[in-house]
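S1.2 Input.
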Amino acid sequence: MEEQASKRVGFVEAFKLFWQNYFNFQGRSRRSEYWFWILWMLIFELVLGGIDGVLIATKIVESGSGLSVVLIFELITLIPLFALTTRRFHDTGRNIVVPAIYFVVWLISLLIQLFFQGQVNVVIDRIIDIIMIIFGIYILVVSFLQSDKGQNKYGSEPVGQGYRKPSHQ
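S1.3 Output.
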């Protein structure tokens, strides 16, 4: 058990791997790599949400303008989060269809928020919400699953590989 724990990606290592693998959709990612990055995102979004609050309170940014520091952060991290989720799905032997649909709908939602806030039909907005919830729950469930043991069609098992660099295939 102790040996297994020492093979996990740590909190700081997950941060480094996230940015090093910005465009890496190949291979597999451990649960620890995925969940530590989710924790990083939560921390960043709480801090950035506070900054947004200050910007709105000081009238630097108008409330309801659609522009926010959190939104900019989400746009910057959209591609590497999609890549990490893809590698997490690969780790469980799944393809990228569900993450791809989810991230396309998420991008559409972000763009609507940025450029068309308040101008989108409520029905379209609710459809987007339902798609995000259904696919989000599926992604959540898959992200908790154990890795496929040994080799699968996406590569070798990430447990025990140590600190890995992005592959350029």
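S1.4 Remarks. The chain has one domain: 9-144.
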